[in-house]
Amino acid sequence: KKFFSGNWSLTHATRSTRVTDSTVCRDYDLKMHDNGTIEAMYGYNENRCGNPYDVHCYGTQNSSRKDEFNFDCHLHNDREEKMDTHIDAYFLATDYDTFCVVYRCVTTKEYFEDNLFILFRPNKTDEDYAKVLVENYGLTMDDILARKDATCAKS
Q: May I ask which residue range the UniProt record assigns to the signal sequence (predicted)?
């Protein structure tokens, strides 16, 4: 429950077709409801092209895997475009206060994608520790998009 309260900033993500600089600019607002449902809200500006999306996700812990959480997400933008996605998030490592490593799989009608995400609490990013985490999963910083290298719009 401690993890699912407050804000987390996505600071590092493995590269893929749909993960861009705008992805690592996301700040997640998490809340756990009394019934165990987790609400995650965030926004992003698709490829910084003036097409901002608001995203609301609702999920629960998987009953057979305690590290897996299953979310249904609803995306919409000012152009009245809407999309639904399903995200399976596997929480690989966290200290609950500072950092978190998540393996996430996104499924829509059109595609499937998986990525490793590293999140830190706002203003607590530790680049040296992020590198240790990345290398722990057999990757290098060349495999990663980092927020420090992205141009994030002010929210």
A: none
